[in-house]
Amino acid sequence: MKNTVLRYGVYSAITICALSLAGWFLGKNLDYGIQEVIGYASMVISLLFVFFGIKHYRDNENNGIVSFKKALLIGVLISLIAALAFGILDVIYVKFINPDFMAEYYTHYVEQMRNTLSEADFKVEFEKLEAQKKLFSNIFMSFFLMFATVLIIGFIISLLSALILQRKP
């Protein structure tokens, strides 16, 4: 099981990093909404290795049998490796590759709020945003948010994969 988790976890980590870097550099002139869709699509595509990892374990290492619990564990561990890689990549991106990203995104988000909310609602939401600004610009929080996002999506894919691939003796 350990070899399967490591192999497919590394495949998933490499894929999420490659797709994210490609999305960041090739899509830097795209709207933030489109970039967000590309980001989530990259996460889902890279986490397809969860399914393939569980299937590989069941078919090649465990004589065609895998319990739901074992399949879920394998999937979550593969997702954990991808989540760690993406969290670290995000920190590298916002710290070294594009250190202005947080300020640019914040400005974009404020403008989006200004254009969609009434003046009174904007003031309320802007105060909330200002209160959270320091927290979300923290590098550890950035790591945690990206790590948690990938892990949550990975857990959902692991759950679905475990349901599909479980096979009892």
TrEMBL record:
The keyword Transferase does not apply. The chain crosses the membrane at residues 5-26, 32-52, 72-94, 139-165. Keywords: Membrane, Transmembrane, Transmembrane helix. The keyword Thylakoid does not apply. This is DUF4199 domain-containing protein. It comes from Aquimarina mytili. The lineage of its organism: Bacteria, Pseudomonadati, Bacteroidota, Flavobacteriia, Flavobacteriales.
